[in-house]
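Q: Sequence in, structure out?
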Amino acid sequence: MAVLFSDNFNRSDGGLGSNWTNLAYAAQIVSNQATGNSSGSVVPYWNGGTIGSGYAQCTLVNKPSSGGNHFVLTCAVNISTFNGYQFKTTDTTAQIERIDSSTPTVLGATFSAPANGDVVRFERNNSSGDCIVYYNGSPVATRNDSTYTAAGNRAAFSFNTSAAGTLDNFEVGDLDSGGQPMSRRWETVPHLGGRRRFAASF
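A: Exactly. Output:
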């Protein structure tokens, strides 16, 4: 299977709902998009299953404003140990980080932040050790690190404040045995508001 879960947040303003678990303050839906919380950081993860080699992606409708705000996207952090890998961006720069017991280490050089409206994808291949970031389907950064290669990770996003942006069309999936996204395959996947059938192409 390629797509494991997707959420377009097209429902009433308020919390994200039962498919999500919040590790900090509760993320919010506002006008059919997900955003942060004025009380502090939000770290919601999809609670429907764990992931080995996989990806998480979303449309970053509004990237973080200036002033130290940031957005994080991951499919590769173990929430029991808080070890793994993630994509992080401010309003100007982005980076791939390894997380060691909640402490981030930047892997390689920083790169340009996505633009408002870009589809951002973070992919982790445990077999090769590659972490790859895509903007609108094009790879923009690859980092290799094999410190953590076990399965059992979660897909999540994070805003450190309500000024850290908004996202839409969150999606999480796995990779095939060759470490590549499944392509042009009809899938029936769980989706809030019912199940849907579509051709997945990545």
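The CA atoms of residues 18 and 47 lie 8 Å apart.
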